[in-house]
Write a structure and sequence with these properties.
- This protein is of the alpha+beta class.
- Helices cover about 35% and strands about 25% of the residues.
- It has three domains: about 140 residues, ATP-grasp fold, B domain (D-amino Acid Aminotransferase, Chain A, domain 1, 2-Layer Sandwich); about 70 residues, 2-Layer Sandwich (Dna Ligase, domain 1); about 150 residues, Rossmann fold.
- The strands form five sheets. Strands 1, 8, 9, 10, 11, 12 and 13 form a seven-stranded antiparallel beta sheet that branches. It has a four-stranded antiparallel beta sheet with strand order 2-7-3-4, covered by helices on one side.
- The protein starts with about 25 loop residues before the first strand and ends with a helix.
- The structure holds guanosine-5'-diphosphate and manganese (II) ion (MN).
- The site of manganese (II) ion has 2 residues, from loops.
Length: about 400
C-alpha cells in the first residue's frame, strides 16, 4: 500500500499496517508542536475552540497580522476559506466566527490555530516518508510549494527532487546540500533549507513518524526558512516509546471506530454492506478481497486478534450490528494456536448474550476445525449459517446482503 504522500486524503482509506496499533494523524498545530521539539522554526501561536478565545489569543500574541487557520486533517484549507489573514482583533472575531463550525470536505472545524503571520518570498515543499518497495526513506523537495504535491507530480514531475535514504546511513549534511541544489531552490534559501531538512529527518526518524510534510516551507524576505504548515502521521506501533496521549486523544474517528478503539479492536470503517470479523489481520484483508471478488463490498475491516474471548466477539458483533450500513456479517476464523473449538465456544457464548439483527455466515477452518464446527452445528439457523470454504461463505454472505 502506498503511504500518505501521494494520497493526502488518506483518512478514509484503510491503512493496512498488519497487526499493530493505528497510526496517529496530527492536526497542524500538533505537527508544529512536534516540529518545535526538534528545533524546526514554526510560527508562534495558540490553538483555541471559541471565538472569544481566538480574539484573546491574537491579543496575547501581540502583533498583527495574525493568521486564523482551520484545524482539520485534510488539505486545501486555504482554498476552502479556512485560512485568513487578520489585521485587527475585529477581523480575528469575524474570521474565527466564520471558520469555527465550517465544513471542509466533510470535516467540521472544532479548533482554530492563531499564529503570527509570516511574510513570504517563496513557497517550497518538503517531506519524508517510507518507500516500502525500496526499503528506504524517501525525501521529496520542490521549489513549487504551496500547492498540492499531487498536482506538481502530475504537471511537472521534474520539479520534485527525490532522495532515497538508507536508514542505516541516515542523511548527511552534504547529501542534504546536493538534494537542495537539485531542487533548484533560491540560493538564499540553501543554508536554511539544509538545516531544516536535517532536523526534519531527525523528527521523522527519532520521532517515529511515517510521514512528515511541510507545505509550504517558506523563504522569508529576510532570508530565513520556516515551516508554515505541518502534516505529520506518527507510527502507532512506536507509541510505547513516546508520550502521545494528547495526540491520541484528538484522533478523528467515526462512531464505529471510536467504539472499536475503546474495545481495543483493530477496526477500520468502510462503506460497504458486509460486516467482517476475522482472526488475524492477514485473514481479515483476504476476507475483504474475497467479498469484493464475488461482487460484494465490506462495511469494515475487523481483526479480533488471537484468543477466543467471548467478550471480544460481543464487542465486535455489537459494533458491526450497530452499523446501519451492515446487511449481513461474515465471521471468518482460521484456527491456529487458538483452536477451532475454543473460537466456536467464544462465538456461541457471545451470541448467547447479544441479539444480532443481521444474518451471520461463519467459515471455520484450521486447527480442530471439525470440533469447532460440531460446536456451532446445533446453533445454526437462517440467522447463523455455516459454509465449508471462504469462497462459499463469501458468496452466501454477499447474497444475504442483497
Ligand atoms: P493548506 O491550504 O491546508 O495546505 O494550508 P496552509 O497552511 O498550507 O496555507 C495555505 C496557504 O495560505 C499558504 O500556501 C500561504 O500561501 C497562505 N498562508 C498561510 N499562512 C500564511 C502567512 O502567515 N502569511 C501569508 N502571507 N500567507 C499565509
Ligand atoms: Mn499546506
Amino acid at each position: 500500500m502506498p503511504t500518505g504522500v501521494l494520497h493526502h486524503d488518506s483518512k478514509h482509506r484503510p491503512r493496512w499496517r498488519g497487526r499493530g496499533r493505528a497510526d496517529v494523524d496530527l492536526f497542524e498545530y500538533q505537527g508544529k508542536q512536534f516540529f518545535a521539539g526538534f528545533d524546526i522554526p514554526v510560527s508562534r501561536g495558540r490553538a483555541v475552540t471559541t471565538v472569544d478565545d481566538a480574539v484573546a489569543a491574537a491579543e496575547e500574541i501581540g502583533e498583527y497580522p495574525v493568521v486564523v487557520k482551520a484545524q482539520v486533517q485534510v488539505g486545501g484549507r486555504g482554498k476552502a476559506g479556512g485560512i485568513k489573514l487578520a489585521d485587527t482583533a475585529d477581523e480575528v472575531r469575524t474570521y474565527a466566527t466564520d471558520i469555527l463550525g465550517m465544513d471542509i470536505k466533510g470535516h467540521t472545524v472544532k479548533v482554530v490555530w492563531i499564529e503570527v503571520a509570516s511574510d513570504i518570498a517563496e513557497e517550497y515543499y518538503a517531506s519524508f516518508t517510507l518507500d516500502r518497495s525500496a526499503k528506504k526513506h524517501l525525501g521529496m523537495l520542490s521549489a513549487e510549494g504551496g500547492v498540492e504535491i499531487e498536482a506538481v507530480a502530475e504537471a511537472n514531475p521534474d520539479a520534485i527532487a527525490k532522495i532515497w535514504i538508507d536508514p542505516v546511513d541516515g542523511l548527511s549534511e552534504s547529501a542534504a546540500r546536493e538534494w537542495v541544489a537539485a531542487a533548484g531552490l533560491n540560493p538564499k534559501a540553501t543554508d536554511g533549507a539544509v538545516d531544516i531538512l536535517l532536523k526534519l529527518y531527525r523528527a521523522y526518524t527519532e520521532g517515529d513518524a511515517d510521514l512528515v510534510e511541510i507545505n509550504p516551507l517558506i523563504l522569508k524576505p529576510t532570508g530565513e526558512v520556516h515551516a508554515l504548515d505541518a502534516k505529520v502521521t506518527l507510527d502507532g506501533n512506536a507509541s510505547f516509546r513516546h508520550d502521545w496521549a494528547d495526540y491520541e486523544a484528538t484522533q478523528e474517528r467515526d462512531v464505529r471506530e471510536q467504539a472499536a478503539y475503546e474495545a481495543d479492536l483493530q477496526y477500520v470503517g468502510l462503506e460497504g454492506s458486509v460486516g467482517i470479523i476475522a482472526n488475524g489481520a492477514g485473514l481479515a484483508m483476504s476476507t475483504l478481497d474475497v467479498v469484493n471478488q464475488v461482487g460484494g463490498s465490506a462495511a469494515n475491516f475487523l481483526d479480533v486478534g488471537g484468543g477466543a474471548d467471548a467478550d471480544k466477539f460481543v464487542s465486535a458483533l455489537t459494533i458491526i450490528d450497530n452499523d446501519p450500513r451492515v446487511r449481513s456479517i461474515f465471521i471468518n476464523i482460521f484456527g491456529g494456536i487458538t483452536r477451532g473449538e475454543e473460537v466456536a465456544n467464544g462465538i456461541v457464548a457471545a451470541l448467547d448474550v447479544i441479539d444480532i439483527s443481521s444474518p451471520i455466515v461463519i467459515r471455520l477452518d484450521g486447527t480442530n476445525a471439525d470440533e469447532g464446527r460440531a460446536i456451532l452445528e446445533p446453533h445454526l439457523s437462517d440467522g447463523l449459517q455455516m459454509q465449508p470454504t471462504m469462497l462459499d461463505a463469501a458468496r452466501k454472505v454477499v447474497e444475504l446482503a442483497g
